[in-house]
Amino acid sequence: KNTEAQAGAEARNGQLTKPPGALGRLEDLAIWYASWRGTDRPEMKAPQVIIFAGNHGVCAQGVSAFPPEVTVQMVANFEHGGAAINQLSKAFGAKMDVHALDLDTPTADFTQAPAMTEEEVVAALQTGWNAVDPNADVLVTGEMGIGNTTSAAAVAAAVFGGEAGDWTGRGTGVDDAGLSRKTDVVARGLALHADAIKDPLQALRCLGGRELAAMAGAIAAARSCSIPVILDGFICSAAAASLHAAQDGALDHVVAGHLSAEGAHANILSNLGKDPLLSLGLRLGEGSGAALALGVLKGAIACHSGMATFAEAGVADG
Amino acid sequence: KNTEAQAGAEARNGQLTKPPGALGRLEDLAIWYASWRGTDRPEMKAPQVIIFAGNHGVCAQGVSAFPPEVTVQMVANFEHGGAAINQLSKAFGAKMDVHALDLDTPTADFTQAPAMTEEEVVAALQTGWNAVDPNADVLVTGEMGIGNTTSAAAVAAAVFGGEAGDWTGRGTGVDDAGLSRKTDVVARGLALHADAIKDPLQALRCLGGRELAAMAGAIAAARSCSIPVILDGFICSAAAASLHAAQDGALDHVVAGHLSAEGAHANILSNLGKDPLLSLGLRLGEGSGAALALGVLKGAIACHSGMATFAEAGVADG
């Protein structure tokens, strides 16, 4: 974060041909973006969307409305351009990359054992770290992984506390019996790993999944390159929460793209102190809500960097 | 509205590679758009943004934080590409047109006389009607007119009832004394024209402005061409409200682009039964909030018309 660029952007914002504050959150968003890009008049020309996919041993407990083979089928759909995130990436000019993480080797069922070994979680974090293009100027991380709302609920509960039921929702659409099973599964995972998961990165290892760890790695890498990040929904936010819990301020380069329909997402965002840009009832994952928010960020930056000042336009400033 | 296209779009939506409902409001938006464009798989390639500008006799009452000459100065800014709406139109691929309506002849001060004669309001409605490009596939109407939140508040109060204070806000930023003056001005206008304004189009004539009438004309013309419309903020919504009050269903081809920070906008939208797509604290006018919502609509249509079906992608549908 560049405080000089931030001050320059704030000064510029005050001179643009509009009443003070009339662009609302677009003004804050443009100034925040300028501060991370190190210039008072930034552009956004190279958005990157990265989708990480992983499989989850906990699916054996019957926590999802979809069978686990859908993960690899959807990866093929991403690669062939057929998913929602393909359309949204194209609509907002983003490069899209897909990383499937050992889909043939699901994580361990976290009600029986830690989801990942130390080696596995480190490998997933590294995959995420290395997936970030240092020349990108904004990053969206998305995911695909049947069973991963269960994993995300467990990670959020570990990081923020509370009961399993506070964090567990319907995901892709389980019925009441499924929700009850899922909540019980989360509670059993929290109990089994109670000691280890006091450390948020151990929570990611014991309860998370490869795609969650990869998103965390990518978000951390973006920070090291001063690339602003837009959070997607519940699973992405749970992965980010592990960074937030591990180090205060770790998400200063991050905005919340949208509020998901997955019930506990609001609770995660509130704990992260992030106000979502959009609230349109999405609950798809894949980075879809964040990619949609690229449009808002694009508009904010276009106004900030493209508008005339009062002096340039010869407009009286009230 | 084409019910066959709507049914086709609903059927298509149910086959796309996502859990049912997982794209939230994007799904409804795409189906609504398809129904107006008459095809189950629509595209959005020709957005039109039209800015109408007018001056207001009621400015003599000290209702704005800005002097009236800012209207013509901002029209020059639109024409030279320096305003927020220029950047947003460009960012979302919209053609932008500007119509300045008799800026040298402000409307009459509505606390003294009807703002417009019959001839004047008809001319403004026609300007709006004729400004719509029949080949556009979505329309944003925006406005510029120092004093026009006062006019819009009066029109909204006339159309929906209630007290002047329920509809009057700070506009571009008047202080407490200005707000009190403005509320009194609205109340006096409502009292003076109490009989005539029982008819919503007479409310537009007696209390509105040329740019409000032009927006109403453009929104009506769009309906006749099956062009969906995105409403902007308080002033645009007040203009649209006169159509809604004049004829039930007159705004079926319209969505609310955003919720403005102008306090009474929420009240107008609630009376219109429209749920805004965005809520980012904008209060600029110029069509800015609606233009930003073009991004949401673009994303919705891209997903609906571009995604693969379960069958096409070979994905199990749960």
Automatic annotation (TrEMBL), chains A, B:
InterPro entries: Nict_dMeBzImd_PRibTrfase (IPR003200), Nict_dMeBzImd_PRibTrfase_bact (IPR017846), Nict_dMeBzImd_PRibTrfase_N (IPR023195), Nict_dMeBzImd_PRibTrfase_sf (IPR036087). GO terms for molecular function: nicotinate-nucleotide-dimethylbenzimidazole phosphoribosyltransferase activity. Its EC number is 2.4.2.21. One of its GO terms (biological process) is cobalamin biosynthetic process. Keywords: Cobalamin biosynthesis, Glycosyltransferase, Transferase. The active site is at E286. It catalyses: 5,6-dimethylbenzimidazole + nicotinate beta-D-ribonucleotide = alpha-ribazole 5'-phosphate + nicotinate + H(+). It holds the Pfam family DBI_PRT. Pathway: Nucleoside biosynthesis; alpha-ribazole biosynthesis; alpha-ribazole from 5,6-dimethylbenzimidazole: step 1/2. It is an enzyme of class 2 (transferase). SUPFAM superfamilies: Nicotinate mononucleotide:5,6-dimethylbenzimidazole phosphoribosyltransferase (CobT). Belongs to the CobT family. NCBIfam families: cobT_DBIPRT, PRK00105.1. Catalyzes the synthesis of alpha-ribazole-5'-phosphate from nicotinate mononucleotide (NAMN) and 5,6-dimethylbenzimidazole (DMB). This is Nicotinate-nucleotide--dimethylbenzimidazole phosphoribosyltransferase. It comes from Cognatiyoonia sediminum. The lineage of its organism: Bacteria, Pseudomonadati, Pseudomonadota, Alphaproteobacteria, Rhodobacterales. The gene is cobT.
